[in-house]
């Protein structure tokens, strides 16, 4: 079929979808995304000095009653998107959702956010400032943005102005590319950087259904969990986070490896690590998958097949990563900057939560130094990670599904026990879990958890974990989200349109 006939057909199908009952969540979420984009002008992660708003006579949107109004608009938008997501979740539970519904809905929800200011995070300003460092001949792994004064620096959170870049050379190259095109213009830089995240979302949309079908799971449910999830749409895309690239590359790598393209898979994992190091957690499990594929093709023993897969993976990874590093003209200094996350203190990790509880309860009886306790709990957390990872790698080695479970568990362990975490970190394990946790109880739990994480953080990037009122509100929303899907009706038989095609164990 020619392009001239295909395009109108696709447009007609999309229009029919928008007018149908099936498309109501898409339109509701679209309205919510518009409100987020509008409210974000005043209540989002705005610039310190915003001449754009001043030229539009909208500066009042950021202060006083204007800030209240913009906050109401933004939170109403978040509420509408959550309601729309839960409505789609009911279709996941009753097994009437289709891949097309999920993909078309993604387009509706994403479109307004492409024009939004960053929301729920100020990281994009740090990205731009770090890219400008490399553009201007400085090493972002040796110096922080404060060493390169410009208009970009004005918008970087003070805590990160002296911190060196903790991201891989591939992402630093992307940030450099953006600042070379737009210079020090923050608005243009934010928009272009968000567009650079789109390939990650496209790869995730491509890979998640394939991974799900490979293990016999529902592809539409996988898209609901890891693509339409507000943590992805609002945080990763609306907040402009490089996790979008990392997660997309990682899932594409897993899908290609499952489909017997391990060389391409390992290459993409190397690129994912060159964005953010966390993706490397998946590589040891992909070696198991490649080993089994080698044994199916050759009369090799397990040890020989494992040695070949390990050696080949190591060579491919090293070559790809080295090429990217040389292209960026940097070294490996970013690995030492990973410790910068210790500056973050919130309840999203177990070590910090335990330290807070010890401080609160122990303080009733004696003087307790919070940071002294935090240092101890963080050391214990690192020890748990160090012990857990090799054990999980060895335990989950027998099948492709086990490999997927192993990746999900190591991601979860790392997120829960690292010194500090942020909401979008939970998209790492969610991407993997999307093919594994699709029962009604699992879907309801994911809905409740995602809602809590979404609501507990504020649009300007701060959080409400030390406000009992905010915690109670977020918990109430989470319970409501869980209940709405835990008690949703479930069909006994899955319609043909929603069944994953070509499922294989």
Q: What this model shows, in words?
A:
This is Alpha-(1->6)-mannopyranosyltransferase A. With 505 residues, the chain is mainly alpha-helical. It has one domain (3-344, 422-497). Helices cover 66% and strands 0% of the residues. Helix 6 (123-135) crosses helix 7 (169-182), helix 13 packs across helix 14 and helix 13 packs antiparallel against helix 18 (400-417). It is globular, with a radius of gyration of 23 Å.
Mean pLDDT: 89
| Strand count | 0
- Number of helices, where a helix is a run of at least 4 consecutive DSSP H or I residues: 21
Global shape: globular
Quick recap of the structure?
Pfam families: MptA_B_family (PF26314). The chain has 505 residues and is an all-alpha fold.
Which descriptors apply to this entry?
505 residues; mainly alpha; 21 helices; globular; disordered C terminus; glycosyltransferase activity
